[in-house]
Design brief:
The chain is of the alpha+beta class and 162 residues long. It has a single domain (11-160), classed as 2-Layer Sandwich (Beta-Lactamase). It has four helices and six strands. A six-stranded antiparallel sheet has the order 3-2-1-6-5-4, with helices on both faces. Strand 2 and strand 3 form a beta hairpin. Helix 1 (11-26) runs antiparallel to helix 2 (32-46) and helix 1 runs parallel beside helix 4 (144-160). It is globular.
Length: 162
């Protein structure tokens, strides 16, 4: 599979290493699009068993989630807040881990190869900016360790924005 780095087998250690890499990658840059693009690439090429890694950003005019920087196959362009896994995480301002997307009510299937998903909201000063979305062809690929590790990475992203 695609990997740039050999991360430790222990997930917590792997996320700590990714945090160090992400801090270095985003250092000195405050642009949301540039930083989410680099973060999507880092995650896609570093984590195993992903078929999509990217962002949906809040589009201020309509209030939908609009496709942002990503790595993987073409994706759904707009997702209403509250709909699907991404919209649910955005509405709740909470991370959502879904072991089997086919069992998630209202799941939006952008890629039929995806079987599990984790979505982390991006909140800056109380305002929802968007969500980080990771998909995997492997059922139950994501767990609480992934959720906590990805939340820490999203905090680094938010800090980079100033």
């Amino acid at each position: 599979m695609h990997t740039l780095t050999d991360l430790p087998a222990d997930k917590s250690a792997a996320y700590a290493e990714l945090a160090r890499s992400l801090r270095a990658l985003l250092e000195g840059e405050r642009d949301l699009v540039a930083n989410t693009a680099n973060m999507a690439a880092l995650l896609f090429w570093s984590l195993r068993d992903l078929n999509w890694a990217g962002f949906y950003l809040v589009e201020p005019e309509r209030g939908d989630l609009l496709l942002g920087p990503f790595q993987g196959k073409p994706a759904c362009v707009r997702i209403p807040i509250g709909r699907g896994v991404c919209g649910t995480a955005a509405a709740r301002h909470e991370t959502v881990v879904v072991p089997d997307v086919h069992a998630f009510p209202g799941h939006i299937a952008c890629d039929s190869a995806s079987n599990s998903e984790v979505v982390v909201p991006i909140v800056h000063d109380g305002t929802l900016l968007g969500v980080l979305d990771l998909d995997s062809p492997v059922h139950a690929r994501f767990d609480e360790t992934d959720a906590r590790g990805l939340e820490a990475l999203v905090r680094i992203l938010v800090e980079s924005l100033g």
